[in-house]
Amino acid sequence: MKRIAIAIAGLGTVGSGVIHQLHRQRDLLKKQGLELDIVGVSARNREKAAQAFPFLDPLPWWENAAEMARACPCDVVVELVGGEEGIAKEIAEAALSTGKELISANKALLAKHFDALQKLSQANACAIRFEGAVAGGIPIIKALTEGLAINNVRRVEGILNGTCNYILTAMTSEGRAYQDVLEEAQALGYAEADPTTDVEGHDTAHKLALLARLLFGWNKPISKMSVKGIADIQAIDITVAQQLGYIIKLIGVGSMTNNRLDVEVAPMMIADTNPLAKVDGVLNAVHVTTEMAGTYTLIGPGAGAEPTASAVIADIIDAALSAPSRNFFPARQEAEDASEEDGHSRIKKWYLRLEVVDKPGVLAVVTALLRDNQISVDSVLQKGQSADDKVSLVMVTHPTRFSQVKELKNSLDRLDFVLRPTQLMPIIENE
Amino acid sequence: MKRIAIAIAGLGTVGSGVIHQLHRQRDLLKKQGLELDIVGVSARNREKAAQAFPFLDPLPWWENAAEMARACPCDVVVELVGGEEGIAKEIAEAALSTGKELISANKALLAKHFDALQKLSQANACAIRFEGAVAGGIPIIKALTEGLAINNVRRVEGILNGTCNYILTAMTSEGRAYQDVLEEAQALGYAEADPTTDVEGHDTAHKLALLARLLFGWNKPISKMSVKGIADIQAIDITVAQQLGYIIKLIGVGSMTNNRLDVEVAPMMIADTNPLAKVDGVLNAVHVTTEMAGTYTLIGPGAGAEPTASAVIADIIDAALSAPSRNFFPARQEAEDASEEDGHSRIKKWYLRLEVVDKPGVLAVVTALLRDNQISVDSVLQKGQSADDKVSLVMVTHPTRFSQVKELKNSLDRLDFVLRPTQLMPIIENE
Predict the structure, then answer these.
(1) Which of B304, B266, B292 is nearest to B405 (CA)?
(2) Arithmetic mean of pLDDT, A261-287
(3) Which of A201, A413, B18, B148 is within CB 3.0–4.6 Å of A265 for a Cys-Cys bond?
């Protein structure tokens, strides 16, 4: 019988899910030779915890979670508090510096402090496991670091935030406006009261940072990543995209081309034959392209109590079985970092939408700018009724470098008949 | 530095891929603290091996692979010979009985002898690993037994044979006939000269047997599985399916309902919104439905040298790191086995296509039979020109038990105006 003593900090939906699942499956786990015992819990409300887990009697309660991480006689500390600093960081440091394994679903903390925590864990010979931190229940960390370990991954693309994907899916299928869908998502509990972290792309960035760390050794601060959210996507962008054969998704991309690494988060237009184009609602997905062994797509629930608990428990079982932790698999690639200007370098085509005053001569000025910037276009279309003297002018470029198209956008945005910043979006064809 | 000594039996495309990848990545593996040394090889042609692997000099050659498995001083024997009996079985037994780990991509062998090999491996305390045996490069065994370990899986559906999927995809997208596409697939190397194992569904059955073993503890001989191949799918079935909003795929299904287990392989009609419907060409996919943590879909290359080698090497790395092998995770479910008559019990609707003589009164006889069997239909359509006095009569039933619809089919096939056995196919709606 393998026995492991677990302390859990944070009893929100995921923490509660972990405790309930472990309790529910305890006989099955015992039959498999595993005894996974919860010997410490810490959260905000002791009364609530006592009521929620009557089978933990007496409740092994700690008022101070960091103190628990340090002093509780356990093998593993599960950190489900959240937040990139403060108590979450204290818990992680206390656990590792006292030689306990750290299991965390906290992407913000891990994205920010990976190197420091890794050093601490190596110094104390105890693993960090974080399957729950990326793509919820999808066992993506395991798939990449163990299942596909021998492959050089050239590119990873992920739909990593269920809130954004829910909003974009509803906008696409129902033709509704961003704000309208966001409010509905908030009412349904799919979006937070303050949705900034999700809709501005930061949550996706944290998860992508972890994937890029594992796959490419990316170890920059997250502030160096190019991150754009979905708040300025308009219904017309989605409609035009569909007419052109694309679906708009918020994608985190890490891509290695000629030893140069691009890591970025942005809404992108995906060919509707791409497997990611069909990943709808709150689902997450990760698509990886290997150098020699083809492409792989993993789809599943990216959040929620049960799926994330399932990932956390997979880590607990790994810890109980002393499964080697491979998150320290060294960077498989040693890439130069592409400069911001060179970002998107592998992305071939661009979508630009200008909102312009509907008057003669506009197209002539715009096309002259295209010529001056040496950008050739695949198609130009004018959209929208001009009742209010505004029209949208949509252009899809031929393959163009980001630096060029950025320059063009800057010039366009300075024109007096351009009414708002030009919408610029990369296009991903099917591979 | 973790060092592991490997003997490889069988140097076809996968075996060669393993040796080349290990050689190509050896510096990277060393940087990760892994030395994976090939200390024995055995295959049909020594000359060819010497030429293919000049870096193995001297070539650690064994004339007899079973003798190698027994006597070669190594930690792991990789069996890539194939075949459910004979030398493959001898190799497996020799390796395990002398305390060596067995890594195999041989689904036929494992499906047939899982219990015996498992006993041998337990008696000798050495693992069997077989990531390469199911769905090629997709790390499905790891995902199910480790990543999703805590979940009760209720249902697994897989596209597990690239040859069949290639043929059905080409029939679907190009409207071509089975025989025509099969010949092309043979010319392209996607189908064997004798395609029986693939097109009759046996290969899918072997892989499904392994999945059902792991997920549900299924341990019947494969002859007890209901297995139907794709050879009698006609172009008209595919066309009608598309008109009804379905795609035909060869699916291996294991499903647990009310503690009853159905395991079967058959061409099925899948709602075109189901993630499996978009898995085209030689790709494989596995879709699992868990009791509480949602559904997961894994898509990737199901065969080929590099993808399968990637899975085999993942097993080798696991062995080198002494990662616990979980293929002996006991049956998570203890199900009664559904009888053949009760098979398909969860599948609701059925597609029937009759080829009948085009004469008055046929429909009246058929509909009377439906009434007598208490089967109500969702739709009836008549298809095809009656120039040759033959027409197809297609019916989609309301949710119906297999035993009932089978009875109906038997009655229909006895009618003198029915020209060939009625095509009967289950329909899988999107979950």
Answers:
(1) B266
(2) 93
(3) A201
